[in-house]
Amino acid sequence: MTLPSDPTTQTNWQDVASEHADFDWSVDFDKQTISGSVTHTLVWKKADVRQAIFDTQHLDVQKVTVEDRPGDFSLGANHEVMGAPLKVVLPSNRAVGDKTRVQIFYSTSQDCTALQWLDKEQTQGKTFPFMFSQCQPIYARSLAPLQDSPSVKITYTAKVKSVLPALLSAIRVSPPSARPAHDGKVIGKDVVTYEYKQPVPIPSYLIAIAVGNFRYRALPKVEGKEWTSGAWAEPELIDATYWEFSEDVGRFLSTAEKILPPYRFGVYDVLVLPPSFPYGGMENACLTFLTPTLLVGDRTLAIVHELTHSWFGNGVTQANSTHFWLNEGWTTYIERVLLQLLHTPADRGFSFLIGAKSLQDALKQYEDKPKYQRLVIDFDVGEDPDDAYSTVPYEKGANFILHLERMLGGLDEFLPYVYDYVSTFMGKSITTEDWKAHLYAYWEKHGGQEKIKALNSVKWDEWFYGEGLKLPVEMIYDTALAREAFTLAERWDASRTETDITKLGFEEADLAAFNANQKIVFLERLQSYPALPHTHIQHLGALYAFLSTPNAELRWRFYEVALLDPASAAAREFAPAAAQWVVGNDGTGIVRGRMKFCRPTFRAVARADKALALQVFGQHKLSFHPIARRLIEKDLGLA
Question: Would you say 210 and 167 are in contact if contact means Cβ atoms under 8 Å apart?
Answer without folding.
Answer: yes
